[in-house]
Automatic annotation (TrEMBL):
Name used for this protein in its record: Molybdopterin adenylyltransferase
Swiss-Prot/TrEMBL GO biological process terms: Mo-molybdopterin cofactor biosynthetic process
Assigned protein family: Belongs to the MoaB/Mog family.
Catalytic reactions of this protein: molybdopterin + ATP + H(+) = adenylyl-molybdopterin + diphosphate
Length: 211
């Protein structure tokens, strides 16, 4: 990992920018239709109530290309949050975690741990997933980058967690912790739809809902 740079980040009035990266040899070659980006975009559209802009990329499982894409999304497009899908398993071409670690300045191990906890409620093979999250810090800007599994249905499962038939949360999804993480790294304040994902912030960090 490169060493962290000190940043003087300003968050005033910035629009949230979210990068979505689908990493799939076959979807990027047109062998099947990519369902990763639509699944990510649909879930975010229901979950985030603050205005945001999406930057989407569909790429093959090539480590250099993944690193280049993540770097471009954070450094040039100024994404505050980047979600990848695919390439986290144990197969030789699954290299998304390696590429993500290489561009990160700090690891956020809780996200990977929680994703595996959630996914184990759905499939025993969740243990095969090497998902992780990092923060990439550059001068004046930082972003949270998180790896999600490649199965399109696993995107909602990991972001939202597990609820019972009445909507009661049984296992917390990872997105509940994302808005406060983005606050802490200097990004815009993210409001969510609590029916989909109730963002958790300590009382001292909460703002009244926008009028
Ligand atoms: N972007 C995607 N769009 C649609 N389906 C996908 C996508 N990525 C994965 N899947 C589905 O999930 C299954 C397991 O995902 P995995 O990431 O292991 O794919 P893979 O076997 O590495 O192949 P590829 O990289 O070509 O998607 C795939 O076989 C496919 O059915
Ligand atoms: N929630 C959830 N997580 C899941 C799965 C799933 O179906 N649901 N599939 C698992 C499987 S089979 C694998 S191999 C790993 C890695 O998947 P990837 O290589 O597509 O990222 O994610 C795991 N995580």
């Amino acid at each position: 990992m490169p060493s962290p740079t000190t940043n003087s980040i300003s968050s005033g009035g910035e629009v949230l920018v979210v990068g979505l990266v689908s990493v799939s040899d076959r979807a990027s070659a047109g062998i099947y239709e990519d369902k990763g980006i639509p699944a990510l975009a649909d879930w975010l559209a229901g979950a985030i109530t603050t205005p945001y802009r999406l930057e989407t990329r569909l790429i093959a499982d090539e480590r250099a290309l993944i690193e280049q894409t993540l770097t471009e999304l954070v450094d040039r497009q100024r994404c505050h949050l980047v979600l990848t899908t695919g390439g986290t398993g144990p197969a030789r071409r699954d290299v998304t975690p390696e590429a993500t670690l290489a561009v990160g300045t700090r690891e956020m191990p809780g996200f990977g741990e929680q994703m595996r906890q959630i996914s184990l409620q759905f499939v025993p093979t969740a243990i095969l997933s090497r998902q992780l999250a990092v923060i990439r810090e550059i001068d004046g800007h930082a972003a949270l980058i998180m790896n999600l599994p490649g199965q399109p249905k696993a995107i909602k499962e990991t972001l939202e967690g597990l609820k019972d038939a009445d909507g009661k949360q049984l296992v917390a999804g990872i997105f509940a912790a994302v808005p406060y993480c983005v606050d802490l790294i200097g990004g815009p304040y993210i409001d969510t739809n609590p029916a989909v994902c109730k963002a958790f912030r300590p009382k001292s960090a909460q703002r009244p809902p926008a009028a």
